[in-house]
Design a protein that fits this description.
single chain; 94 residues
Length: 94
């Protein structure tokens, strides 16, 4: 309890399907919407999965969050529910 405020943290556990980015984002959203919390913690590499066999796999599935729009539903959920979302993903950058 923080200053009389109860902080609820939801650990969102699921097995991301390798390479199924949109499907994994949808699964994460469905699970987050099922439980009210202040902070949601998603699995490591939740949108791509993490069974990379080669560096090329990683490069192909990495995303540029500023451009792709893939994570927009996660951002919107965070804003609409006034909650923080901890989500790791493979980021494409220079």
């Amino acid at each position: 309890m923080i200053g009389g405020f109860m902080l609820e943290i939801a650990l969102v556990q699921f097995e991301p399907k390798f390479g199924k980015l949109s499907e994994n984002v949808a699964t994460a959203l469905r699970l987050m919407k099922s439980k009210k919390a202040n902070i949601y913690v998603l699995p490591e590499l939740f949108c791509s999965g993490y069974t990379f066999k080669a560096k090329d796999d990683l490069n192909e599935l990495a995303i540029d969050a500023k451009v792709s729009g893939l994570l927009d539903p996660i951002r919107d959920f965070s804003q609409d529910s006034d909650a923080a979302v901890c989500a790791g993903y493979a980021e494409k950058c220079d």
